Amino acid sequence: MKTSFRILEPSALQLIARDMNSKGSSCVANFLTLEQLKSLQLSVSDEAEKHPGSYFAHHGGPEIEASLLGALGASQDFRAMLETVYQACAGKPAYSNEILKVLRCVQGASGHRESNCFHYDASLVTALLPIEIPQEGTDRGDLILFPNLRRIRSNVLFNVVEKTLLQNALGRRLISAAIKHRILRPEKLQLVPGNLYLFWGYRTLHANEPCDPAKRRATAIFHYGDPHAGSFATRMILKLNQRRARRATAMGTQPTV
Side by side, which strands form the sheet with 26-28? Predict the structure, then answer.
């Protein structure tokens, strides 16, 4: 299987960053070859058999590293792409070049429970790689974005308080109701497997719409460049989120973090 990935020229990377600033997101069409996409879909299918009809997620770990996602995360060209895009927004290198890799799969009744969980990411750059996405019908699990609502916060505690006030059940219900009644009009992306979507996850409030329970929605997410990396609060939040994610996978549900 081909393990090399697309290499983007510096001019293309600058265009991606400009699109993320002006439109809120950027798409690299056909980032994966058909062979690479089929390999990932097979890996997801194998994992899905271990969680029949239930939500599951892997935050790093052997399930990811043994798949093509591990090779992509280790690719120097992919890492350089994320670093270039990060610097275009932050104006300086990231504190750490670590890439946090997540494999997330929504299937069965969990499709509706896992929708509209609006949040800001801890990382500045979020690269989303769809693996399996329904392409027909209304419940496709489309990505909803309120692009670039905030700047990088200078104080990590302010960032934590801001996220806590927003990322809760009441706040998410209010946002969903405002969208339903067209008070709020977010950007919406219908994701195509094999494309790569990039946006400022730290600055952009985002979630996914419901997914048809009869279908499967599987995505890989690569988080790069936490502006507050190294702080005690950031380390504790990361550990808490990973613990909750492991517990949620065991229960077949996703925590609202």
Answer: 26-28, 196-200, 125-132, 216-224, 99-107, 56-59
How are strands ordered across the β-sheet holding 187-189?
187-189, 143-146, 205-208
Instruction: Give residues with Cβ within 8 angstroms of 204, minimum separation 6.
Output: 24, 25, 120, 121, 126, 145, 146, 147, 148, 149
How many whole angstroms separate alpha carbon 43 and alpha carbon 60?
14
156: region left, alpha or beta (phi > 0 left; psi from -120 to 50 alpha): alpha
Least confident of 2-11, 62-71, 135-144, 195-204: 2-11
Q: How far is Cα 100 from Cα 86, in angstroms, rounded to an integer?
A: 15
For the chain, the C-alpha Rg in angstroms (whole number) is 17
Tokens 């599987």 belong to which residue? 218
Given a contact cutoff of 8 angstroms between Cβ atoms, the answer to whether 25 and 198 are in contact is: yes
**Average pLDDT of the chain?**
88
